[in-house]
Every structure is written in structure tokens, then in C-alpha cells.
Design brief:
Layout (H helix, E strand, L loop, with lengths): L1 H27 L2 E6 L10 E5 L5 E6 L2 E6 L4 E7 L1 E5 L4 E7 L5 E7 L5 E8 L2 E5 L5 E5 L5 E5 L6 E6 L2 E5 L5 E6 L11 E6 L6 E3 L3 E3 L12 E8 L9 E7 L6 E5 L11 E3 L5 E5 L2 E6 L3 E9 H4 L4 E8 L2 E8 L8 E5 L5 E6 L8 E4 L4 E4 L13 E6 L1
Antiparallel strand pairs: 1-32, 2-3, 3-4, 4-5, 6-7, 7-8, 8-9, 10-11, 11-12, 12-13, 14-15, 15-16, 16-17, 18-19, 19-20, 20-21, 22-23, 23-24, 24-25, 26-27, 27-28, 28-29, 30-31, 31-32
Amino acid sequence: MWRRLEHTVVLGVAIQLAIVIAFNAIMLTPRWKFQPFAPTANGGHFYPKDWSADGTALLTAAGSRFEVLRSDGSVLLADVVGAWPVWIDDRRVVALEAAQDSTFRLVRLDTVSGSRTVLGGPLEAGSLIADGRGRVAHQSVVGELVISVLDLADGHVTARLNGYRARTWTSDGALIVRRPDRRLANIHPEAGALFRWQPGDLPRALATDLVDMGQVAPLSPSGDALACVCASRPSVSADPLSALYRVPMDGSKATRLAAWHSQGGSGQPDVAWLSETSLAVIDGDGLSRVDPGEGKRTISGLSAAELGFIRPLGRVYALGDVVVAILQEGAPPGSDPELVVVDGQDRILLHRFLDGANAPVIAVDGAQGRGVVSTEPQLPGAPPIGFFVLQFR
């Protein structure tokens, strides 16, 4: 009888413990919602571009105009004239404003006070790349390839790099650049060798045995390496074979991480770091993870075959070990893009179809664990509304 009673007590405790564990697991599992964000002030279709480093303001842009919104969606700066706006610190933005004779000028705006300052002399048509820490470079978009590093005190040019295209700034103030290889111009117009340029020095080659073939080269969280879609120099030909590589910033030999499935060269999918050694990728296989020792592993339910995509395209973002991605069919055009959120155990937390043939844009705020997703207008003439993707714990 005592054994039977003991068995009953143990069984009851086990059941209660299982209920508690299951309840806690449900409560602790990140829950994601898709909720409205405030429309832009003038009802125009602005796209989210980038959060300020402290997450208090969102920069949105469309063509030669931009707006800045507070984190609650209210308007901080409304419908400002300026192309290629970028953050230079937590509260100031610089942009290019058309001047006379088809030239442009650099304009600095304070998003809090609203003050506006014109910096430096005329610039050619181009784009801006900044690091949010007071560094900015201008690169030409027509004619010769020229990168001009600008002083934000008065706008004068502090350095000029001829024949390069800017990729990204590093945390220590270096600029990662690519020198296009003319031999590949007919196949990959901007493919070429990677370099690291430090102010006061000449560009130093990275991964000397590789050619960067991709559109993105994101830095790892520590900034010690970048991920590239590269091809080995000996295989550069009419049909170079690309793979995903980890390229150290110290100039040491790159590491091949996984094969890259380009699916017939149908555009350039995306790459995002999840940790110093793990990546999320979108390529011809669908949405995958790349982990040390495991290679590339397509996430269940999000492979190209399961999605019904012939040529998957999209953008992928990381919030810790959580993957946020926009997936879309590359051909035929017109398919609805899909928003997915996947946790560190490859569980799909959110999978939602979005209206509109154009792939939405996401601006991720890593500090707050959220992202704003642009959408197309729901009804003819209706203003578009951005959406927060919020994580609750």
C-alpha cells in the first residue's frame, strides 16, 4: 500500500513539474507581433532606412526626400529634401542636396533642434556611407570610381581613393573597399579584390586569393572578420564558382564556410551574422544557417522547395540568435513576399505573407530587439503604414 501511495505521489509531483516547465517555456519563448506603426507625415511612401545607434529615432527615405520618426512613430523631421541620408551620431543626419550645374552639396541636420548646415564645396552625383560615429564617405555613381572621405566639421575632403567602391566602415575607423576587376566586367560588373583602408595608409589587401562576387560583405559582431560571397582566383572564368567565406581583418587566410547556391545567377541574396561563427543566409536553397563544423543547414519549412520558390531572393537580419527574413520569389515577378522570424532552435515564431510585389524593407534596432517593416498601400490611394515587429519576453 505504501509503495502504491509513494508511486501516486511521485506521479503527481512529476505531472505538476511538467506543467510548470511547459508553462514557463511558453512564457519565456519570445512572442512576436505584427502591429501598426504611424504613417508618414505627408502620406508619402517612405521606406525605413536605419535606426539611430541609441534606438530613439528612425530614419526613413524615398528618392530625394527623407523623414525622421521617433520610436513611437511620431514625426521628428517631416519631408526633408535630401538624398542618401545617413546617421553620423545619435541625433544628427547628413544628406546630399542638389545644387547648381548638376552638382550636390553636403547638408547636416540636427533632428532635435532642426538646425541645418551646409558643409564643404560642390560634390559630384554620388552616395554616402557612414558609420554613425562621425565618419562619412562620398562615392561617385557616374564616371570614374572615386571615394572621398569627408570631414564633418566643415565638409572638406580628407582623403581620396581612386578606383575603389566603399563597402562598410569598421568600428576602429577603417574603410572596407573593393577594387573592381575589369576582366569580370561583362559577368559581374563590380566584382573584385577586397581591401582595408586606414586613414594615412594605402589600402591593404584582404584575402589575396579571392575575388568578392557578392553585393554584401557584413562585418562580424566583433568586427574581426567579414563574410563574403567570393570566388577563388584560379577559378575566375566565364562561370566562376562562388562560395561563402569568412575573411579576417588582419589579412590572414580566409576560411571557406559553405557552398553558395546562386540558382542560375538570379540576383544576389543576403547574409547576416548570428554570432562570431554562425551566419544566416538566403540563396538558391532558401533560408539556411551556417554553423562551424556543420556547414550550411536549410531551415525546415523554409527551403526553396517547401516555399515553392524557383529563385529565392530576399533580405535577412539577425537579432541575437533570432533570424528575421523577407523571402520572395525571384521569377516569375508578382509573388507576395513572406516575412519569417525563426528562433535559435529553428522554430518558426512568425510566418506572414505581405501585400505587394516589391520586397519590403526592414530596419532592425538590435538594441531594442525590434524592426520596422515597410509595406505597400493596402487600398488604392491609401497611405502606406510601417509595422513594428516586436519581441516580448
